[in-house]
Amino acid sequence: MTKNLVLLFVFLAGAVMSPNSQGADVTVKAVDGRTGRPLAGYVIRLDGIDAMYPEANTHPLATATTGSDGTATLHLDEPLPKALFIVLWKAHFPRSVMIDCARPEFSTDEVLRSGVVGRNACDPAHRINHTFSAGPGQVVVFARKKGFLESFPG
Question: Which of 109, 32, 14 is closest to 69 using CA atoms?
Fold first, then answer.
């Protein structure tokens, strides 16, 4: 009886301390909003948003670089924020922040529950002949490279 209780305790302790039970993984797919091609070799940073005024209250949570398919998986530790804000730039070029095709802010609960495909305002004529989808824990974001004149400050 005591041996069975010890085994049960070890099993339950292992389940509680399992890395999968702490936090959540989010896979972000970065897509060029003008061409529909994956943005490979870009750094994705997930910022957490916890308050009413997100610009003043974001905090970096995780960073990863996209692969050839434009995706990167990032792990978020507990406590999870109410919303996620995605920042994207070309690896090795930190000043090359991309122009978002829509505000890249998403409800953490919605991302984890069903997945989210962001809006693509960079393709108003709907030239991209591909429909993007996302499953639980996935986000698809659209961005475009800065134009020459947009690269200069002010």
Answer: 32
